[in-house]
Design a protein that fits this description.
The complex is a heterodimer of chains A (about 270) and B (about 240). Chain A is of the alpha/beta class and about 270 residues long. Helices cover about 15% and strands about 50% of the residues of chain A. Chain A contains 4 helices and 14 strands. In chain A, the strands form 2 sheets. Chain A has a 7-stranded parallel beta sheet, with no helix packed on it. In chain A, strands 2-4-6-8-10-12-14 form a 7-stranded parallel beta sheet, covered by helices on one side. The radius of gyration of chain A is 19 Å and the shape is globular. Chain B has about 240 residues and is an alpha/beta fold. Chain B contains 8 helices and 10 strands. The chains are: A alpha/beta (about 270), B alpha/beta (about 240). At the A-B interface, helix 2 and helix 3 of A face helix 2 of B.
């Protein structure tokens, strides 16, 4: 574990992308390969609960193709048992003027890696948000690789991570804006909270911008549970445990509040608490 | 009654307060004055058990119980309150949400909390529907935060209020408001107050029963309200 967990992909690698075979080599067993295709102009909401039942080294591959002017709200949840090692690859194409709202909620596992690679065509819009939590001995990772091939395309990412005890989280984003893509907008925000003495949160937001018209912002922060803040809450009568829970819940709430359907928000709240 | 006997405390091997003796009884308003970094706030937070302050000697007695080592939240449960000089930042939480979280167990319902909260906001000239005052540190937000500390005091079942420089960042009008809230608080049965301030307006409103002057972590002088006038007029030079 550690910072070496970051993928070493650079622009110029084969297609600047990872195929399951390339990434997994012989280590991982692909147990699932699915395709979600949304027809032109359609809109849909999908809740995808990734619940592997096998143990050991697992890999899942999901292809998503959102056709022109279509809209997909996709929420992915994944809770892994402590000794599970799994890698998910999401290959996503968002075509002209299509929109994907992607919620990713990932918890637990010895190695729990979610690689999201996207191609955005002209006017395509990608909004991603999510929460990554590892309070066990393992490593949870969200890795996004976004290729803004089309002009006027927009990607916004807002991911929060939480690690406690000896857990580790990784958020890595590599966003590419080529020279001929005009008026692209890129936003990356990653807020991490370390709740245990040996917890680690790594963050690497990167934008490779070659366009003179692109607007890009990237923000990353990592905090511990603030001792002064805990003390303040204790002076108001909260026990230390309740004060810690309150601050952790407040950190989670910043992402949970984005989820619109209440039923889904409650389900994810339970996933994070459980 | 709060009794402090020979209290000394340090942080990272630096002495903060030395041999403090203090006795605060019901109905009394004690004021601590002193120049910057004289140990006034350190004394307040030593009583409450700030995690970075270590008590090296002495006793803190609350109604015959030695409370040096009891957890901070339990001190709050005993009816002791501290209003912070600079409350910490809490991202993206509204003031009322925090109030609800803290006082949920002490009121029969959220409606009861809200009624009280709105009443106290009106008294202290605060908007009850403001967004997160804990997220922004500008002059307006600081002024709101200070008055908000008094709302916390009023929401709790407080016997002893320790108020640390509530006047800082307040307008003259709001200092008068805060002063009258504190004065009214201590006039109620079984209440007592320890106020850290050097502000002339606040001192005049409070008309303290006891005044202590701290310099270099020690109480150098104690007296009645007349001592305030002397200090305000002559400063601390003769005590250094």
């Amino acid at each position: 574990m550690g910072i070496q967990s970051f993928l070493k992909a650079q622009k110029g690698d084969p297609d600047w992308a990872f195929t399951p075979e390339f990434y997994f080599e012989k280590e991982f067993k692909i147990i699932d390969a699915n395709l979600i295709e949304l027809s032109q102009g359609k809109s849909d909401q999908i809740m995808l609960r990734q619940e592997p039942t096998e143990r050991g080294l697992l890999a899942k591959h999901l292809k998503i193709d959102i056709r022109e002017n279509a809209t997909l709200d996709l929420t992915v949840t994944n809770e892994a048992v402590d000794n599970l090692q799994q890698v998910f690859i999401y290959d996503i194409r968002i075509r002209e003027n299509a929109l994907l709202n992607l919620g990713m909620f990932v918890k637990g596992g010895q190695l729990n890696k979610h690689i999201i690679q996207l191609i955005l065509d002209d006017g395509a819009n990608f909004n991603a948000y999510g929460y990554v939590i590892n309070n066990s001995n393992g490593d949870c990772e969200i890795i996004t690789k976004i290729d803004h091939r089309g002009s006027g395309s927009i990607s916004n990412q807002y991911f929060s991570c939480e690690s406690g005890h000896q857990g580790q989280t990784v958020f890595q984003s590599m966003v590419s804006v080529p020279e001929d893509a005009d008026y692209v907008q890129v936003g990356i925000e990653n807020n991490n909270l370390i709740t245990g003495d040996a917890g680690k949160c790594f963050s690497m937001p990167e934008v490779f911008n070659q366009s003179s018209t692109a607007k890009t912002t990237s923000v990353s922060s990592t905090d511990f549970l603030d001792r002064d803040l805990l003390y303040y809450l204790q002076t108001r009568g909260m026990t230390q445990t309740n004060a810690e829970c309150f601050l952790i819940r407040n950190h989670r709430e910043q992402v949970l509040s984005i989820i619109q359907p209440e039923k889904i928000r409650e389900e994810i709240d339970q996933l994070l608490i459980g | 009654m709060l009794t402090i006997n020979n209290l000394s405390a340090q942080s990272q091997s630096q002495d903060l307060i030395k041999n403090i003796n203090l006795e605060i009884r019901e109905g009394e308003t004690h004021v601590i004055m002193g120049p910057k970094n004289s140990g006034k706030s350190a004394l307040a937070h030593s009583i409450f058990g700030h995690p970075s302050i270590e008590i090296t000697d002495g006793d803190i007695i609350w109604n015959s119980q030695r409370i040096n080592d009891i957890p901070t939240d339990q001190k709050a449960g005993l009816g002791i309150f501290i209003g912070f000089q600079l409350p910490p930042q809490i991202e993206k939480i509204t003031n009322f949400d925090l109030i609800k979280e803290i006082y949920a167990d002490r009121y029969p319902s959220t409606t009861d909390i809200e009624i009280r909260y709105r009443t106290y906001c009106e008294i202290l000239n605060l908007s009850p529907d403001q967004d997160s005052i804990y997220s922004t540190y500008n002059d307006a937000a600081l002024s709101q935060l200070k008055r908000n500390e008094l709302i916390h005091m009023l929401m709790s079942d407080v016997k002893l209020a320790i108020i640390d420089e509530v006047d800082q960042d307040l307008t003259e009008k709001d200092i008068i408001l805060a002063g009258s809230v504190l004065k009214n608080f201590v006039n109620q049965e079984n209440r007592m107050c320890l106020v850290i301030t050097n502000n002339d307006t606040l001192l005049k409103i409070l008309t303290p029963t006891h005044v202590h002057v701290m310099v270099d972590g020690e109480i150098k002088m104690s007296g009645s309200a007349e001592l305030c006038e002397r200090i305000v007029k002559d400063g601390y030079s003769e005590l250094s």
